[in-house]
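Take a careful look at the protein record below. Let me know whether the structure tokens fit the sequence:
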Amino acid sequence: MSYRTLKFFSIFIPTVLIGGFEFFRHSVLLHNLSMTAGNFVITILTLIISYIFSTWMFRTIDLKNQRITKEREMHAIYEERERLAKELHDSIAQTLFLLKVHLKKGKIDEAGALVNSIDTHLRQAIFNLRISPSEHVSFSKRIQNWLEDWSIVSGIDILTDISIKDSLFTPADEVQLFGIIQEAFTNIRKHSEAFRVNFTLQTSDSHWEMIIEDNGKGFNITELQSNKYGISMVKERSERLEASLEITSEEKLGTKIILKGEK
């Protein structure tokens, strides 16, 4: 039902019912119903009609808003998938070009490393695309499965502590948060030389906190650039989540990422 139809009903239904009763009272019940009793009846009738009609109308509007919100969230998810597909295409195309160059030069070790890189990117892309947005898979389970796959591929141990209310995040928020997790762990695999990662994601009624900490080589935080290690993407996603982002690192002491938000 369109909003135009709702507007039409909200104008004419109360008018017809209440006005019709008033016409019937004055034309048929005039000598059988006193003015005081008639006023009392019309007041009660107006209350009942207003309650029934407003309850129905606001329930209809609420259902419409829920449907619109869900459609927007699904649109955000599909947009994210399109972005991932484009990034995957560009990344693999570039990697294949470099692979061809290394093979021509006889650099077998470098070529092998590039093949492993392609394999990792494909595994991550398959994981992101194999779950339909309409499937009822909990967010915590998706994270846990992805971390287990990542640990097997990278050979880095992960200690996880996930305790979240899955209803706390909207599907659009899950896309952003999951993207941050993937970017952070991709950087750990590529740059950190870590052998262990601690991952924590905790939520309360209105707050949540995510911590990713590795025991790798770290880096000089003062020399950190936003366009390095995907930091700009992580910052952009955290802003979309309206969350605070803190990155701390010391050389030979590892790196720690803390993300906090409210819902």
Observations:
- The chain has two domains: 3-67, 138-263.
- The mean pLDDT is 79.
